[in-house]
Amino acid sequence: MNLKFLETFYWLAKLRNFSVTAERLNTTQPAISARLRALEEELGIELLFRTTREAHLTPAGHGLLRHVEVILDEMRRIRERLGIDDETKGVVRIGVVDAIVRTWLPTLFERLREQHPLLSLEVTVDTTLQLGRALREGDLHLVIAIEPIVGEHLASAPVCAYAMGWVCRPDLIPKKKRPLTPEDIAAMPLIAYPPQTPPARLTADYFQEVSQNRSRMSASNSMSTMIELASDGLGVAAVPPVCVEREIAERRLGVIRTTREFAPLSFIASYRATPRNAAIQATLEEFFGAAAAFCATRPPTMARAFEL
Questions:
Q1: What is the β-pairing status of strands 165-168 and 236-239?
Q2: What are the DSSP calls for 111-143, one per residue?
Q3: How far apart are CA 132 and CA 11, in angstroms?
Q4: Domain containing 188: what range?
């Protein structure tokens, strides 16, 4: 059985598109069709059927896919043990949320350039919802978001967690000697996250039964936008203080002392469980290395890294 045919079948099953699979495997669409046809003839079963826009697995195809994933993953391990293609190269498409851009994404680039100079990154910055959709559709290889991306053949692991806090322009912090209560915060103009998003649920838990004045609330799905609005004096925003270290140092923002603490905000890596090529595996490992390097220079109460 031809290993190249199995790899072609795997990517067709994942991408559901002959032309996209051809691009992924650096070949032509007719070549992809020929490989699939040869595999089906060898096995004597139909593995895929086409609609006008997509390719879909037959029941027999679903059964074969589980075995193919194991075979390809084992072949990757064998090649690694034998030192075949041990040079990590290629393009890895990653997706991250704003908080990672503001903390250890530059460190990730530096580490990859030092350790894997032939590897290139394409970075998408978006919300957890959009990143999850792109990962499931095969547009991204790896994602760092604020909740695990759930889907068939996807795996997740926590990378780091940041403490959360309320920030605003320093001159807007109430001149009170005592820490502010959730009721005090709720009475201020709030720059919030859109409803039903993971960070919005975090702030909802913070306020619990506290009444909020919706007429004094603005919302944005971009942490960077929220930070700019808070810096301009338009309200208070809930963000990790490690994401606004520069603004705090420049006295554009200050952290409000409060009586109630947030639960930490976790950042989760999500990726296809198997098979992963050397470039994707190296990038995943450097996610954890870059996060650990960043968190090691901050108090553990503010930033904590996890191991892969």
A1: antiparallel
A2: HHHHH-TTEEEEEEE--HHHHHHHHHTTS-SEE
A3: 19
A4: 165-255
